[in-house]
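task queued by scheduler; priority normal; single chain, no ligands, no partner chains; default sampling; output format set to structure tokens
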Amino acid sequence: MMRVLLANPRGFCAGVNMAIECVDKVLAVKGPPVYVYHEIVHNRHVVDGFHGRGVTFVDNIEQIPEGAVVVYSAHGVSPEVRRAARQRRLLEVDATCPLVTKVHIEVLRYVRDGYTIIFVGHRDHDEAIGTVGEAPGSIIVVESAGDVARLEVPDPGKLAYVTQTTLSVSDAKIVVDALRARFPRIRHPEKDDICYATTNRQMAVTQLVGQAEVVLVIGSRNSSNSQRLVERAAEASRPAYLIDDASELDPKWLAGRGSVLVTAGASAPEYLVEQLLERLVSEFDGVVESHTLVEEDMFFDLPKSARSLAVME
């Protein structure tokens, strides 16, 4: 018998639910083709599912025919992208997660007040690119405490920081502590930028990993928050594997193991978790135990740009 610890919270967060609902709404009202700037969320199964329904994902606004519908992904976009869309007379539907929008607003406020902004995050991530695009001349991206040590800023007395919403809580703390140590007067957001879902999923792994011999995380390779869950398990010296779905499970990982922790990143559909559990039960004599650490009730309404589509018909 194998003990299967099922972490909760896991899977879709409010921002991902809202973004997917936006694309569903556009498809229902306008019909295909629908264009999405970048992947709507970082999950291969979600993206492939929309592909099959007539959605095209693009990395350049110029790839979208003039006058078509464009949906902005949950990760947010820069003002430059919005300007390019308007030049092509695109109908814009903004599925940016409100928690990402919060960071954009913080950036604009700091810039207005004359601050140089330190963005703590992964410079090549879609969210970072969109946020930095709000004020590229005033933002410096740092990924590590080493980057902080090498920082050169115009005025240490006029410095503020924001963070990517999907960072590892522990990694972000190391960088933020380094910033505060070097720049004691640095300003910071009133409320932590790392989103509730990222924090909750990492906390669940941290609290449950001690009871498991191996950790399985459902999520795609380009999902930042899913990668962070693997890292959390590694911090606890547990082998952890990031898999897109049950088909990627290697039985060798579970050989001789009596317990496994299962969780999923914030952009991973629940049906993928259910398929993995079915395989663990049928092939490894798994007995599933659900462990709920936090009840999540966050909900985001569809943005006005999506709600108004029917009116525009």
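post-processing summary
- The chain has a mean pLDDT of 96.
- The first strand starts at residue 2 and ends at 8.
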